[in-house]
Amino acid sequence: MVRQEPLVPSQPAPSIAPVPPLLQPLLGVHSAPSPEWLTDAAGIAAERGLGALYSLFYLAEASGELAGQRPASRERMRALMRVDEALGTDLTTLKFSTRERPALLAVMEKGRALAVTELGQALPLDLDAERLQAAQRSLGIAEAWLAPFHWNGESLGLLLLLMPSSASAHLGQAELLGRHVAVALTNLREKEAGRKRGELDAVRWVYDEGRFLEQLGQEVRRAQRHKRPLSIMLLRLQNVDELYHRYGRFLTEQLLRQLGNQLAEAARDTDFLGAFGRDGFATILVEANREGAKRAQERVLANVRKMRLPNADLPNLDIELSCAAATLPEDGETAGELTAAAEARLDAGATYKEAV
Q1: So what CATH class is 209-355?
Q2: pLDDT tens across 120-153, in order?
Q3: Do residues 72 and 105 lie in contact, with contact meaning Cβ atoms separated by under 8 Å?
Q4: CATH architecture, domain defined by 2-195
Q5: CA-CA distance, 32 to 257, in Å (whole number)?
């Protein structure tokens, strides 16, 4: 028996809406630094936000098969050992095709969550029906929910949720979780592809300094050729060494990524954001004169004041920022002259202190 909740054509499913129990664990999904940790974060979100007993993470491969992913943490591996022992197989390493399972294939193609009453309807388990039912009863599993990682018409994988009979969540929430995982997975893959091309900074997740300087050279030549204004803006985290010492690498690098996010949100579509130095950022402000650069600085600082690290359990961090700009041709006529002028102002300018 399978169950699928109705969807109104051409409209979002009314059941797919953020709900308070799911919101907090979703933050971990979007801040996962790697696909391995995303496996854990998705499981935590399913169990804390939806009440799942267990969760299993499967990625779609180019062959069309789904491949199980082992959790990154030992704690989550131990939690799944009970399922493995009851079923006599390691579900985290299972690989199987959806072609022979029409219901599962429809989940992947349509991006709709599905509930089944028997695990054998979702996974290729070498168990007879009676033994499978006994295993499910011993584990307290009433249904298996299939939540696809579906985004922009593509399914990247599947989250298998083993649910109790007392679950108060519904399929729409599982489908929402699957979509968030798909977005996080897409972002991680794009960042990894950029790192392999040598274009993304591995810590800040923006274009690296080499790519930024290359783009700046192009924009300077364009602005000079067409006699158009151009500015750059630099932002530096001044107390980064203190933060590394007090809070460690993980939290400080998470803060740097959040700063990058705030700069990206404050930027216009035509601007170009990159890393600059060990602990800073630089933005090319296309068609911006000095007044435009000043407004850009104001937008950035306003965003930083609203910034909060995505975990309620983390301490507030006192950060010290410096922000400065330089404009073509008043402050220089080459990319090197512009960056030198902005850096000089950065060193001599005011420091802004905020708690995040």
Answers
A1: alpha beta
A2: 888 888 888 888 999 999 999 999 999 999 987 8
A3: no
A4: 2-Layer Sandwich (3.30)
A5: 12
